[in-house]
Write a structure and sequence with these properties.
The chain is an alpha/beta fold and 539 residues long. The protein contains 18 helices and 22 strands.
Length: 539
């Protein structure tokens, strides 16, 4: 059956057709997003939901969305989506962070010019029949310093355009390297230095706990007298009351604001000030940008629903359809390793370190670590997937870390889990050979070579004569056929392990017999999903 997507906000006909061309059924209901009860009544029928900003994807709506796998936001901001609840429910949330970068950057430059030359007020005055040339004396941008807070896609585009206007540009961004700053032609500085130097300050950061009111009363007081503030990013990153106060005092010469903490901004003190240029969240509002993000979200959602590719996800690692082909065997292995740990560990897990050794370390290890966590948690919660695993791990106090290494062992490449609980430490490692079949290669530091089958049995014992025969007889007497028998030991008459592939699941009676024999300190029946592309089909 084809996946099915609901488009509940306005997307272009071309974007809707892209879903159909890529093998996805689509219901185009562009006004449904305004109808909360209507959304609640139909959302359970869809695998995907494509929205702009009108549809509010609340926890209540997500409770009804039993089939939903992906939410696509045609645009950058996902303020209208309960991302935390979607993540808990294992639903991917995608956006299109690059589709409107240029449009928003151009709007920021336009807003900067408007506030520098008082264009809106001068326009209104002229339309009213006045001719107030002396009243609207502005300031040049040439030679002025522009401080850019946030130098990602949009911030970088603003930098290049400001340099074209022959401004000096300083940038603050915790993730901006000196090499990248040099390539952009800007000076990398700390926030307080930017605040002190800049004649104009423009913000291009998302709204997070760290960026909320990043320009508050204290920071605004440290700005250069006569500074002008531009915000075309997100409402809430500038303290609007503090900014209004600073403008009234004359310390801040003006502001250009496209986004507000509350939209529409009824009663906002900035709207009463002639020094403020205000627009109704127009940063991404060009025909080109709207079409671009609509087509991008259609392409991203279709690629995920049809091919398993994840692009621009807010709540999980991304990987392309092409990357997924190379990644898939290792994703399966990572999930099997995690599943083994989850099935044999019955006390709370404190930490899991994932070692990526050899060529696998060059793959998308974030996605692989998510697969490990998914495998572990599925043992106790079958609804876990790569989206929800990180949140669920943190809620359970499990710290998942990773280490990478160049080839350091007998295998060209492998993944090893080191697991710690209050009672024990355990480890398991695996690899993928040229046949793309994952194998377990080490358990408890003991080498073994075992392909993964649907039904398996893991036991530990002391290496003593007759153990293999006793185990085989016990299973055979109860109708359990052994498909493969994999053995390993740390040394003669020392610790030994056995990993058996079985044709069917072991029954409770036989399991009790093995445990009651007191020959095996650990007896664990295991079950793995091993169909072709099993990992992609289940996450």
């Amino acid at each position: 059956m084809k996946p099915k997507v609901l488009v509940s906000d306005k997307l272009s006909e071309q974007a809707v057709q892209m879903f159909l061309d890529r093998g996805v059924d689509v219901d185009f209901k562009p006004n449904l997003g305004k109808d909360k009860s209507g959304m609640l009544s139909v959302i359970g029928d869809y695998d995907g939901l494509a929205v702009r900003s009108t549809t509010k994807v609340s926890g209540k709506l997500l409770d009804r969305a039993k089939r939903l796998k992906v939410i696509g936001r045609a645009g950058i901001g996902v303020d209208n989506v309960d991302v935390a609840e979607a993540t808990r429910k294992g639903i991917i949330v995608m956006n299109t962070p690059f589709g409107n970068s240029i449009t928003t950057a151009e709007h920021a430059i336009a807003m900067m010019l408007s506030v520098a030359r008082q264009i809106p007020e001068a326009c209104a005055s002229t339309r009213s029949g006045k001719w107030e040339k002396s009243r609207f004396t502005g300031t040049e941008l040439l030679g002025k310093t522009l401080g850019v807070i946030g130098c990602g896609n949009i911030g970088s585009a603003v930098c290049s355009r400001a340099i074209g206007l022959e401004m000096k540009v300083v940038g603050y961004d915790p993730y901006l390297s000196y090499e990248r700053a040099q390539k952009l032609g800007i000076e990398k500085v700390e926030l307080e230095e930017l605040i002190a130097k800049a004649d104009f300050i423009t913000l291009h950061v998302p709204l997070t706990v760290k960026t909320r009111n990043i320009l508050d009363e204290r920071m605004l007081s440290k700005t250069k007298p006569g500074v002008r503030i531009i915000n075309c990013a997100r409402g809430g990153i500038v303290d609007e009351v503090a900014l209004a106060t600073a403008i009234r005092s004359g310390h801040v010469a003006g502001a250009a604001i496209d986004v507000f903490a509350q939209e529409p901004p009824a009663g906002n003190p900035l709207l009463d000030l002639p020094e403020v240029v205000a627009t109704p969240h127009l940063g991404a509002s060009t025909m080109e940008a709207q079409e671009k993000v609509a087509q991008q979200i259609a392409e991203q959602m279709s690629d995920y629903l049809v091919n398993g590719a994840v692009s621009n996800a807010i709540n999980m690692p991304s990987f392309t359809a092409e990357e997924a082909k190379d990644l898939l065997p290792w994703l399966n292995l990572a999930s099997y390793l995690g599943s083994f740990v989850g099935q044999v560990t019955h006390e709370p897990i404190k930490s899991v370190n994932v070692l990526y050794d050899g060529s696998v370390a060059k793959l998308n290890t974030d996605a692989l670590s998510a697969a490990v966590a998914t495998g572990i948690l599925k043992a106790s919660n079958p609804e876990t997937n790569m989206v929800s695993a990180d949140v669920m791990a943190r809620e359970r106090g499990i710290v998942v870390s990773k280490t990478t290494s160049s080839q350091s062992g007998v295998f060209e490449s492998y993944i090893k889990l080191n697991v710690e609980t209050d009672l024990r430490q355990r480890s398991i490692a695996g690899t993928v050979f040229s046949d793309d079949k994952p194998r377990f290669i080490q358990i408890k530091g003991i080498y073994v070579d075992a392909e993964i089958d649907r039904h398996m049995l893991y036991v530990t014992n002391k290496d003593t004569p007759g153990m293999i025969g006793w185990l085989g007889t016990a299973l055979g007497e109860n109708g359990i056929n052994i498909a493969n028998f994999h053995l390993g030991r740390s040394g003669v008459r020392q610790d030994a392990i056995a990993l058996l592939s079985l044709d069917s699941a072991i029954d409770a009676k036989t399991l009790a017999k093995l445990k009651n024999s007191e020959l095996f300190p650990q007896v664990h029946p295991l079950k793995f999903e091993v169909e072709a592309s099993a990992f992609m089909s289940r996450w």
